[in-house]
Amino acid sequence: PARTVPRRRPPRNDMGPGLTLLLLLALLASPAQAEGGTAAVEEVKIEVLHLPEVCSPKSKKGDLLNAHYDGFLASDGSKFYCSRTQNEGHPKWFVLGVGQVIKGLDIAMMNMCPGEKRKVIIPPSLAYGQQGYAQGKIPPNATLIFEIELYAVNKGPRSVEAFNQIDKDSDKKLSQLEISQYLKEEFARDGKKRHPSAHDEILADIFKKNDHDGDGFISAKEYNVYQHDEL
């Protein structure tokens, strides 16, 4: 009989307020622009260290990922980053492919499935370039090595599900009333005290950054800037 290998239980995948908070931040953020070309992809070297028997779903641009990763300098192997030593050891949540991590990691973590482990080598041009990152102890023109363990792949904050959560009347566009109600529900859920003007200021900012045609609604096309779902 096959031997059962005990596995460490991954961190709890409890989206809850975390996803709704990211959804709000995504609405406030400037839309991400699609980047063309494939030359950069060829510069990232990827070695798969572990691939689960069931490899699904695979990550794509706009997905919300949960992962741990360690960073090393290729020049001497010294470790400059460890996600396990931050945020009380919880793995990091981030949206893939929109610049929340360095470009090399955005590339290296595409088409990755929960439970997969990778070792990736990222050239300076897709990391911190000629400037380096002094605060992170990364010198100029440094090639970086990351060891990554992915725990979860979820629909991101610009997904169909997130849009439908706000679109109460299912007319494929978000009105000021719908987003206003969403904000009120989120504010009530987190329980933080805010100035009475905060609601109106955030609502105005959301429409300023998302209502590109100025018609008073955020259409499905305007909302879904990551373009990985059909709305």
UniProtKB/TrEMBL annotation:
Entry keyword set: Calcium, Endoplasmic reticulum, Glycoprotein, Isomerase, Metal-binding, Repeat, Rotamase, Signal
InterPro entries in the record: EF-hand-dom_pair (IPR011992), EF_Hand_1_Ca_BS (IPR018247), EF_hand_dom (IPR002048), PPIase_dom_sf (IPR046357), PPIase_FKBP (IPR052273), PPIase_FKBP_dom (IPR001179)
Reaction catalysed by this enzyme: [protein]-peptidylproline (omega=180) = [protein]-peptidylproline (omega=0)
Domain EF-hand: 154-189, 198-231
Record keyword Nucleotidyltransferase present: no
EC number(s) stated in the UniProt entry for this protein: 5.2.1.8
GO molecular function: calcium ion binding; peptidyl-prolyl cis-trans isomerase activity
Position of the signal peptide: 1-34
Pfam families: EF-hand_5, FKBP_C
GO annotation, cellular component aspect: endoplasmic reticulum
SUPFAM superfamilies: EF-hand, FKBP-like
Record-linked Gene3D superfamilies: 3.10.50.40, EF-hand (1.10.238.10)
Domain (PPIase FKBP-type) ranges: 62-154
PROSITE patterns referenced in this protein's UniProt entry, alphabetically: EF_HAND_1 (PS00018), EF_HAND_2 (PS50222), FKBP_PPIASE (PS50059)
Name of the protein in question: peptidylprolyl isomerase
Source organism per UniProt: Brachypteracias leptosomus (short-legged ground-roller)
Gene giving rise to this polypeptide: Fkbp7
